[in-house]
Design goal:
Blueprint (H helix, E strand, L loop, with lengths): L20 H35 L3 H23 L2 H17 L10 H16 L4 H6 L23 H12 L3 H11 L5 H8 L3 H19 L10 H4 L4
Helix pairs in contact: 1-2, 2-3, 2-4, 3-4, 4-8, 6-9, 7-9, 8-9
């Protein structure tokens, strides 16, 4: 499939009135996740239709599927293999294998999870001698690149200093915490989906997201209430 695909405009979302920089960080996390959620769920509605078309050999549907997941999967693979070139090869291999098995693609219950798991396994295979070590503790020593919060409409509300602090805080998260935070916040995956992809429990995802939000709040000087639920701000638990 082609490497470049046309970007579609997002949903219009009303911005809340911000009364203090202290609460701005939490609002940004909520708004960021809401945008990802809307985009991801709208795409999810089309997945079954794409799967059916692909099962009949529709190449345009396959190209659409590739465009929907390509960038996220390359970033995910790159966090494992530390090579964008190898990550691109891994993702292409995953889609080639999916195409060769297209007749049974409609049987896949969750195509997003299927693709992430396929890319994860292919990435670990690329690591050859390190694969066994990574299987035993695969996500404790991984450097994950999390996209910086940039000049989107909501981030334009933030001063340059706050924006810099936020990006620095995200970059300094522990490796396991960062990869989970990325999959939930950037890729819009549910806690259950991330748990299945990384082969860990939902409770672990919940705990790591709590660590992520706590560290980011501390870095931003935001004091959270003790009864605040982490997954209510940063991700979708179910």
């Amino acid at each position: 499939p082609p490497r470049k695909f046309q970007k579609h405009s997002g949903n219009n979302v009303m911005l809340p009135i911000i009364k203090s920089d202290c609460n701005l960080f939490i609002v940004i996390l909520i708004f960021k996740q809401a945008c990802v959620f809307l985009k991801d769920r709208n795409s999810e509605l089309d997945l079954q239709s794409l799967q059916k078309k692909i099962s009949y050999g529709d190449q345009s549907a396959f190209a659409a599927l590739y465009g929907l997941f390509q960038r996220r999967l390359i970033a995910f693979s790159n966090s494992l293999v530390h090579s964008k070139e190898i990550a691109e090869e891994v993702v292409e291999d995953a889609f080639v294998k999916l195409w060769t098995r297209r007749s049974s693609i409609s049987e896949i219950e969750n195509l997003a999870v299927y693709l992430y798991v396929a890319v994860k396994n292919l990435s670990l295979n690329k690591l050859s001698e390190r694969a066994k070590q990574l299987i035993s503790r695969p996500f404790d020593n991984i450097e994950t690149e999390v996209e910086a919060i940039s000049d989107d409409p909501y981030s334009l509300l933030i001063t340059a200093e706050i924006l810099s602090k936020m990006n620095k805080a995200v970059d300094e998260l522990p490796p396991r915490c960062k990869i989970i935070f990325k999959l939930v916040r950037e890729d819009g995956l549910r806690y259950k989906e991330v748990a299945e992809i990384l082969n860990i429990s939902v409770n672990t995802i919940d705990a790591q997201m709590a660590i992520a939000v706590k560290r980011l709040c501390l870095a931003m000087g935001v004091h959270k209430k003790s009864n605040t639920k982490t997954h209510g701000h940063a991700g979708k638990k179910n």
